[in-house]
Amino acid sequence: MKAYFISGLAADSRVFKHIHLPDDYEMVFLDWIEPHKNETLKDYSLRLGDKIDSNTPFVLIGLSLGGMIAVEIAKTCSPLKTILISSVSHPAQLPPYFKLAGKLRLHYLLPAKLMKAAARAKRAVLGDKKDENNLLIMQVIRDSDDRLVNWGVDAILNWKTENSIPDHIHIHGSDDEILPIKYTKPNYVIKKADHMMIMNKANEINSILEQELTSL
Fold first, then answer.
1. What's the average model confidence in pLDDT over 90-117?
2. Which of 13, 74, 104, 126 could anchor a disulfide with 82, C-beta 3.0 to 4.6 Å?
3. Rounded Cα distance, 73 and 42, in Å
4. pLDDT for the residue 120
5. What is the spatial distance between Cα 35 and Cα 152, in angstroms, rounded to a whole number?
């Protein structure tokens, strides 16, 4: 069975390098497509979802922004299971200051180049400079498309949807600094894990994925 993966903002399939699924699953990575001008998260998700072969059973796994996109895709493509990692299933679970920033359009004051520089600086200061995962994260951030980053921030802050999806699995880190756990409703909480737990807590995530996917 195919498992389609969607990475987070300013990221790509490299962040899933430590993720392993049961033997009967094929990992398929959905690469980002170029967003249209003023395209909503929902409309973008529907276009990205066209890459999925929905004629055969599949599962959907989304990281951060990729999880939000997975939610919108799942409403039309009916995966057997949708799994969100370090994400939210509804805009109501976004931190209040996200919503305020969207209303005040503060994100337009922080272009992608500045946001990426800030993210790299944080990893350089707080991360282990010799750690392979930290170096990869910094490289992924450097390689990300500025236009996609700008669109993604705006799409998150202005995400509107009527309903969440009732049948989904949500894995979240207890110390997520981007999407604080207190605003979310995860099925699984990984202790002492931050927003990039996909890299440094992969063994725990893999155990949950195996438990959830072998039950299908």
1. 62
2. 74
3. 8
4. 46
5. 9
In the structure, how many helices (H) and strands (E) does the chain have?
Answer: 8, 6
Q: Using alpha carbons, select from 195, 216, 210, 193 the residue that is nearest to residue 88.
A: 195
Residue with tokens 């600086």: 121
With a cut of 80, say whether residue 166 has pLDDT above it. no
CATH of the domain at 64: 3.40.50.1820
Q: Which residues make beta-bridge pairs with 171? A: 85, 188
H or E stretch covering 139: helix 132-143
Question: 205, 120 in Cβ contact below 8 A?
Answer: no
Q: Which of 79, 75, 68, 31 minimizes the C-alpha distance to 170?
A: 68
Which of these, 12, 73, 16, lies nearest to 42 by C-alpha position?
Answer: 73
Q: What's the number of domains the chain is made of?
A: 1
Helix (H/G/I), strand (E/B), else coil: 4:
strand
Structural domain span for residue 172? 2-213
Positive or negative, the CA dihedral 86, 71, 150, 147 is positive
In whole angstroms, how far apart are CA 13 and each of 17, 31, 126, 165? 7, 8, 23, 24
List Cβ neighbours of 44 (8 Å cut-off, separation of 6 or more).
33, 35, 36, 69, 151, 155
Mean pLDDT of the chain: 86
What's the sign of the alpha-carbon dihedral 15, 41, 48, 215?
positive
How far is 189 from 137, CA to CA, in rounded Å? 22
**Residue whose structure tokens are 């996109």:** 69
